[in-house]
Amino acid sequence: MGDCVQLRILRTQEAIVKILKMRKRLSNAQLQTELVEMLKNMFLPSKKLIKEQIEWLIEHKYMRRDEDSINVFVYMA
Length: 77
Hints:
Layout: H1 3-23, E1 25-27, H2 28-39, H3 47-59, E2 63-65, E3 72-75
Antiparallel strand pairs: 1-3, 2-3
């Protein structure tokens, strides 16, 4: 994997955690909107990249899906 791709992955993870830390809980649509806004000066993250990083962050217990709504994410401290 290239350095550029690896850097984009890390920047995407970092931005997702930063957004969720501020908001505590957020819908998928809101998260994607804020993420694109936060990263637009560096690069435009693809939906595939965002989805993969959300899944990675869920697996590693940085965030979880809300029990009542699968499209809502909750930050885990």
